Amino acid sequence: MSVRHALLALLSEGPKYGLQLREEFEARTGEVWPLNVGQVYTTLQRLERDGLVESDGDGEDGSQNGPQKGFRITAAGAEELAGWLRTPPDMTSPPRDELVMTVLVALRVPGTNVQDVIQVHRRYLVELMQQWTRIKENEAEDDMSLALVVDAELFRLDSVIRWLDAADGRIKRAAADPPEMTTGKHSAANALPGVRRRVGVRK
Amino acid sequence: MSVLEMRRVSRAYGQGAAEVHALQEVSLKVDAGSMVAVMGPSGSGKSTLLTIAGSLEEASSGEVLVCGEELSKLSRNARARLRRRSIGYVFQDFNLLPGLTAAENVALPLELDGLPARKARKAATRSLDELGLGDRAEHFPDQLSGGERQRVSIARAVVGEHQLLLADEPSGALDSVNGEAVMRLIHAACKRGLAAVVVTHDAQLASWADRVVFLRDGRVTDQTAPPAGPESLLARGPSR
User: Fold this and answer.
1) Using CA atoms, how far apart are residues A193 and A2, in angstroms rounded to an integer?
2) Minimal C-alpha gap between A134 and chain B (Å)
3) Which residue of B has its CA nearest to A141?
4) Which end of chain A is less congested by CB atoms within 10 angstroms, N or C?
5) CA separation (Å) from B185 to B4, B35, B151, B196, B233?
6) Which CATH architecture has domain B2-226?
């Protein structure tokens, strides 16, 4: 989540005060990502240092970061924002996903029923999705920002469950046909170092 | 009150070495006003569970009660009557009769049950209105979009005095917006007192249910706890 660019986006609508920026940030993200005031002012200071926003100078009360200190976006800030909106985030290498690691490790722990392990995680994820779906049903109908955030979370959790389902099926097939999976360099026992070798896992 | 209760229900096909156990000792209770999703991979027994719950197929052993009536103790005719009066079905491919309008499709189960055509028609129109399809009542299925067709089949499933809705991948053929609309309608029908069982492999559909039951190799292996309130997710801050 780029707080820096979210603040630039809010300032692209017109000059605003720090506190106002915080309130609007939370409202526009469906209040799912709270933001503390300190984070807002630190980010604004950096944006000002980089020439992307300008301030009125000192606030009315004379302090550097007073609540009445106004900020506005500069031409360089608008350019930075437009560039960021069209720059895809880096997704070239897989993130270090704890659940993927859990399943890979479970395969190597003697006496572990991997399918039971998978089911524990599947159930937890479905329960989380039920909670998000209730929010969508009850609270997100008139709140576009919240609905978008909830959809994103539902699709993300859904994709993890799909991966668990695929892993479950793959492990079941491998159990029915052991020679293919348990010998050679692609064996389950070697999966961890194998994965590390083949792809550059993001830290 | 339980609208559907399955007690240690098993279903086997074939005999001897070729015997396949599609369901094994499955127990499930679904109360009025609640929606249960049954999740599981292909071949886990989801559809068999649904056809047995809907009295479209008989269990090899165990008991199935719909609206308090044990299916195996009913005559063929009484079972057919229970199906018509109390159970609505929603299928992935809608199962609407192409030669009938939306209203006629919805009215059909009521007319088959002996309700006079005019009354059946009135109930059908009301059901279509509730699902936002009042202006589509006279359209034929091929004049409707996929989402509208599925809404018509939901109208048919909840019309009259139906108490149990059984759905097999009800939004499988729809895009996510229409799929969500379908689940929203089924859940709303449950809030009005219907009991529903939705079988699906799709977690997004299942997450509309009050309870999710997991089926594997014909057995119930797990189920979700009652969902926590939204306060545990909202304004909690990023977890990552």
Assistant:
1) 33
2) 7
3) B184
4) C
5) 20, 12, 8, 11, 24
6) 3-Layer(aba) Sandwich (3.40)
